[in-house]
C-alpha cells in the first residue's frame, strides 16, 4: 500500500485541506500529525457546511479511520464541540472512526491566557497569534511538563 504525505510550505492558508479531502477518497487512514485548532478547513457535502479544526476531513467519508496524532495539541472543549456538531449535522458516529493518541498534549486555559497576554504586551510588534494557546502548549510539551490526553486516564495524575 502506498503512503501519501501532504506538506504545506507556505505556512498557512494554502489549500491543504481541499487536497487532503480529495485524497481521503481512496485512503484508508487519515492522520493529523501536528498543529492545533488555530487553522481549519470547510467541507461542503450535499449542501451542508462542516467547519473542521482538529478532526481530519476523512471523518466525513464512511469507513475511514481518522487519527489525531501525538504531535497535535488538543483543546478538549473545541474537540468535543466539533464532535458534537458533526454528529448533529450529519448523524455520523464520529467516535467510531476517530482515534486519539494518548500522547497528544492538551491546550489548557493557562496556555490561552498566556498567549493572549504576550500578544497584548507586544503592542505594535504583535505577531498575529490567534490567542488559542497553541504556542504555549507546544512550549509545555517541549519543556516536558505539559499534560497529555493519556494523563486524564491515569488516576494518580488527576
Question: How do the strands and helices of this protein lay out in sequence?
Answer:
Layout: H1 16-23, E1 29-35, E2 41-45, E3 48-52, E4 65-74, H2 76-90, E5 98-100, E6 105-106, H3 109-122, H4 134-142
Parallel strand pairs: 1-4, 4-5, 4-6
Antiparallel strand pairs: 2-3
Helix pairs in contact: 3-4
Number of domains: 2
- Beta fraction: 15-25%
Low-confidence stretches: none
CATH architecture label of the largest domain: 3-Layer(aba) Sandwich
What CATH first level of the largest domain would be assigned? Alpha Beta
H/E element sequence: HEEEEHEEHH
User: What is the number of E strands?
Assistant: 6
CATH topology group of the largest domain: Adenylosuccinate Synthetase, Chain A, domain 1
Radius of gyration: 16 Å
Shape designation: globular
Q: Main beta sheet: strand number and arrangement?
A: 4 strands, parallel
CATH homologous superfamily designation of the largest domain: Adenylosuccinate Synthetase, subunit A, domain 1
Distance between the termini: 41 Å
Q: Share of helix among residues?
A: 25-40%
By secondary-structure content and strand pairing, the structural class works out as alpha/beta
How many helix segments? 4
Query: Averaged pLDDT, please?
Result: 89
Describe the model:
By secondary structure, this protein is of the alpha/beta class. The protein folds into 2 domains: 16-106, Adenylosuccinate Synthetase, Chain A, domain 1; 109-153, Orthogonal Bundle (Adenylosuccinate Synthetase, subunit A, domain 2). The protein contains 4 helices and 6 strands. The chain has helices at 16-23, 76-90, 109-122, 134-142; strands spanning 29-35, 41-45, 48-52, 65-74, 98-100, 105-106. Strands 1, 4, 5 and 6 form a 4-stranded parallel β-sheet that branches. α3 packs across α4 (134-142). The longest helix has 15 residues, at 76-90. It is globular. The mean pLDDT is 89.
Amino acid at each position: 500500500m502506498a503512503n501519501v504525505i501532504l506538506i504545506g510550505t507556505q505556512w498557512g492558508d494554502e489549500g491543504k485541506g481541499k487536497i487532503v479531502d480529495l485524497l481521503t477518497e481512496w485512503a484508508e487512514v487519515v492522520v493529523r500529525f501536528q498543529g492545533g485548532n488555530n487553522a481549519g478547513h470547510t467541507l461542503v457535502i450535499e449542501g451542508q457546511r462542516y467547519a473542521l479544526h482538529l478532526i481530519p476531513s476523512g471523518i466525513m467519508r464512511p469507513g475511514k479511520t481518522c487519527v489525531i496524532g501525538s504531535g497535535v495539541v488538543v483543546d478538549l472543549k473545541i474537540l468535543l464541540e466539533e464532535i458534537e456538531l458533526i454528529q448533529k449535522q450529519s448523524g455520523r458516529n464520529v467516535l467510531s472512526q476517530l482515534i486519539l493518541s494518548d500522547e497528544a498534549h492538551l491546550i489548557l486555559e493557562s496556555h490561552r491566557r498566556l498567549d493572549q497576554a504576550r500578544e497584548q504586551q507586544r503592542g505594535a510588534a504583535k505577531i498575529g497569534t490567534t490567542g488559542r494557546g497553541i504556542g504555549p502548549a507546544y512550549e509545555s510539551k517541549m519543556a516536558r511538563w505539559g499534560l497529555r490526553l493519556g494523563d486524564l486516564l491515569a488516576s494518580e495524575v488527576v
